[in-house]
Amino acid sequence: MSNPSTTPSAPTGIVLNIQRYCSHDGPGIRTNVFLKGCSLRCKWCGNPESIRVKPELSYDPKKCKGRECSLCLKDPFPKGAFYFTEGEEGPVKVNWDLTSGCDEASCSLCPTGALEMYGKTMTVDEVLNEVEKDASIYRTTGGGITLSGGECMLQPDFSAALFGGAHQRGINTAVETACNVPWTNIEKVLPHVDTMLHDHKLTIPERHKKWTGVGNERILANFKRAYETFPNVDFIARTPLIPGVNADEEHIRAVLAFIRPHKNVIDYELLPYHRFGLGKYEYLGKVYELDDYKTPSDEVVKHLQAIIDEAFGRTRQADPTAK
Amino acid sequence: MVGAGFVPGMNAVIKGVALAAGHLGWEVIGIRDGFEGLLRPERYAEGGLLHLAPHLIENLDPSAGSLLGQSGRVDPFHVRQIDADEMVEEVDRSDELLAKLKAERIDALISVVGGQGLTILYKLHAKGLNAVCIPRAIENDVAATLVSFGFNSALSFTIEMLDKARQAAQAAGKIAVVEVLGSQTGWLALQSGIAAGADAVLIPEVPCDLQKLAAKLKEKMTTRRPYGLVVVAEGANLVDNAKAGTDKASTLKASLAPLALGDNSSHVIQRSGQAAETVANRLQLLIAEETFPLVVGPWARAGTPTAVDRQLGLAYGAGAVQALNTGQTGVMVAFVPPDIRFVPLAEAINKVRTVPPDNEFRRTAQSLGICLGN
After folding, report:
1. ipTM score of the complex?
2. Structural domain boundaries of chain A?
3. Interface touch A289/B270, C-beta < 8 Å
4. Residue B91: closest C-alpha in chain A
């Protein structure tokens, strides 16, 4: 898999998005920086626009002016990539198999912004200057920068440089990773990390492969090695909770058995499955394969959360608003 | 090579190609499971290629599935694989594919593909492959041909199922709302609905006003005939501009390239039943009678081909060989009665064969009092 970084000394990276005022991906109020490229293909992925390493086309048909515009049917857009069906009004249609020639320059010709590219190349300073805008909020809330993706460890030099630069500017660092990368990538990044959020998606390797594209043997080995090699990093395990896939007691207990021997794994969070990313599949012409899957019920989440709380030796306050 | 998605009658096409080529003294090699047999031959104990020898073809059962199997998605430009670092990636293996075809001394490729497959073969032809495509489309939505093979078998099966649904509705004294294949076009719904004597047929080409549909059904419901049959194509539109499925999923469906179809394709939404469920639920709020949804959809993709599809398959196969024999490549074989024609792939892609307003089937439906929801 190609690494978009140029040289270790002056790395650039392909950034998908910079999102301010985030509160769920590490301590305090944070700025999440999403990098492009992922080494898994989780069927429930909420960020499909982050999967491909390179920038890619997105199309919002609601913004398209239809036949009255038709600019995308001409040069420099790839021939056959956009078309109208005979006798049909409405937005232009996309033959996604012919869109590989679209780029930032051609998309900029779309007058309504219906065509855009997901992802752009940025320098470390460009990203950090954006992140630093909320420095005062980080100071008061204990927040900072969180690198997410995709899999940000696929751009290890860029990630390490971002975190190193953040620390120099007094900004707390967190990384969100699935760790399906070579260890050499991880050991470049983790020396600059304060908190590592990491996903335990499924327990059984064959099922992990079925739902994410690869087995979990290397991932678990990386987790264990990370816990042991970086004792000063706070590790927070997480599971995207999907009924019918992994929202079961066996998986939660297996994860607890894996993490509890390591004292620097300070928490285990459940992320109830949601479908917020659904619209992005439309923009990319991709299928959402979990269309029939539902958000886990409150009862299931509470039950599994109670198991985690018990394992961490804590009791939760009863919800005063509960009936 | 047989593309993604099962369609009854595949073996008839293979037989047509092999017999016609055999008459010319050509050797025919089949590629297993789309391009898998070439790109991943190690998966096959007997090799990824199959010599379509006369003894194999003569005894080929036309009612069985495809001799060559099929792949989930036929796209050598985006092959998903796990790299040396155990990371999932999509890579372009089209050059490798072309090199392997050359190494196997394969001069031309005849591909049985649907709409998206046509685009893939168009791209491969642009890179130098001598390609001839045979259209297969359950929905009959490939524009350049009047009839794709597979459609007639799906139509026959759907009519049979609608007959059973009507009988079930009669026994229950309810309105059966039956979803049939047709995400882009309403040929299957319209033709099967007419044949099965449906009360209403909702197709993607005609936005349906549920109020009008309800009023029409009220007229038709009597104490003597307290049941009904509504046929809904899975891509049917409602006049509020929401698709018949739930809003989110159907928004997705609506935005996809119409030709980007094929089982397990990364562009396909695998969900059936939404259209029937939505129409049945909304309709029941407007009328006194009870409705119940049924889904025929995916069942129509399998089974034994009809006589028409067997003949069509053989003719398409022979036609593809004829194209190559007359030096034509980069074309799709089209059936435009009474002729077999060859249409350049550049003209075949990005076109969907929809039901036009002045179509005879639409007029027939209206003459028979079948409500189209408008």
Report:
1. 0.79
2. 12-53+121-311, 56-118
3. yes
4. A1
